[in-house]
Protein 1
Amino acid sequence: EAKRLGRSTACFYDMKLAAALEERMALENELRQALMNGEFELFYQPQISVSDTQCAVVEALLRWHSPARGVVSPVVFIPVLEETGMILEVTAWVLRQSCRQAKIWRQQGINLRISVNLSALDFRQTDLVSRIEQILQDEAVQADWIELEITESALLDDIDRTLCILHQLKELGLSVLMDDFGTGYSSLSYLKRFPFDGLKIDRNFVKDLPEDTSDAALVSAVLAMAKAMGLDVVAEGVETVEQQQMLADLGCPRLQGYLFSRPVSAQELLALDMFTTYPTP
Ligand code: C2E
Ligand code: MG
Ligand code: MG
Ligand code: MG
């Protein structure tokens, strides 16, 4: 009896594994079509300058409108793009699309910088810098219209190579921010060692403010340190007025979160009325 049960359990798991593999392959195949079929769209989430409560920077966040699955979260599909290497092509698309959008907004008299997420795999590409330079050139976009976000995990074990890439990106005129700051394990030493322009405090340290006193102490210390080092700071995941107030009091220059807006389409963004406009040429 035990033997028979054991066998049927094994068989059950084999079937589950087979189903999971099949689902994974289906997802991969659909993602291969997605770029070609125009199923990706960039949404944009405002970052508010505390000084004037206006938005000068938006983060580009990828959305996949799958015909079969509906809107799929990047948390689900970005890892698949990374594991298959497809992310390289997608990052190039995101960057190009961001450049085009930045130009459109400028024609409308709105000077918005766009912050683009790079993945760890992008950072491992040997010709990353020249590819980015090429896109900026093709699209005739000034480098200071674009910011790049990279996570600590994207930094290479080869410190010299990481330094070299960061310096080259800065030489192009791009700002580079460390994303999800605080979630890694050696963020502080990395900030000292690498030429970042700023950091984004991860939502995990913001979500329990203002009540959580240890998070408040940590955020306060990070802001003091960033100020001493001349770094820009964005707090992620600001959802309440109390959080906004506390972060402003602690001197955080930029805030991003649902309190101001969820990520929205380019068209919806303009309706938010958070932008200083300039006369169009
Ligand atoms: P991330 O770069 O840390 O982006 C911030 C995420 O936090 C976004 O999730 C955003 O919608 C969410 N968020 C913003 N404000 C709030 C808030 O107040 N409360 C809560 N609960 N969440 C908030 P999203 O759009 O689902 O993206 C998830 C992650 O997927 C991103 O995290 C990023 O790592 C990755 N991702 C998204 N777009 C791209 C892309 O174009 N390229 C790459 N390589 N990764 C991307
Ligand atoms: Mg980001
Ligand atoms: Mg982030
Ligand atoms: Mg985050």
Protein 2
Amino acid sequence: LDERLPIRGTNDELDQLGTTVNGFLDRIAAYLSQQRIFLADVSHELRSPLTALQATIEVSLLQERSVQDYQNTLDQISQECERLSRLVRQLLLIAESESGRAAVSFTKFQLAEIILPSVEMFYGLAESREIQIYCEPIPTCYLLGNSNQLRQVIHNLLDNAIRYSAEKTTISIVCTQFANEVQIQILDEGCGIPEHELRNVFDRFYRLESSRNRSAEGGTGLGLSICKAIVLAHQGQIEARNRLPSGTEFRFRLPLANHT
Ligand code: ADP
């Protein structure tokens, strides 16, 4: 890939072909370099919980301990296992959204079918923290896509909205239908994201400094990159904005199915 075609100035067509091929080679090289970085990040992320598990088990075996100590150790092990399986689930989602296989199962479905399951699923968790989920009436419109994947987008955004919100706040879901597309907004009143970090949050393994320090939230930094990959695979767009006085808005747009 480091080789470049020698471009000679005698023939315009050859010049152009050489430039095009070299452009492709540059893009392939950039892609491979991204994949290498991703693989290194994945290895690192998988190794951390495994090292923690190993250390916890070794310490526990070496020491004579009470039943309560063993109970605590088992709790720690269970948390690390949960983190590992979440990570593996998310890596599989990334692989699926990148493989193009998801497009095979594109079907036509109503917008509400991807919104309501997540709202119902998170209702109890939100209520336990006195967070209200308010979903405005959903327009009756149809999308063409992989409904499981799009459900995952709403799931990840709502999951984040709850995790990064304080108690007694409100999360709103607003869907607006336009001529050819629908816009879905998930608005929270949580801690917000510093303006200069807004564009980075969709990068794989990116976590704000404040979130990295709060390991209890068990985040992986993959949730939003999965959302972006899925939305792009459906010819949509996604972005994050800050809200005043505090909070974050995630909004994405998806094309409507032709026959509504
Ligand atoms: P994570 O598993 O860490 O939540 P994500 O990819 O879902 O990974 O999010 C990346 C980072 O973006 C999070 O670590 C967090 O710092 C920030 N973030 C995501 N959603 C929100 C939100 N609703 N409010 C504030 N910060 C958020």
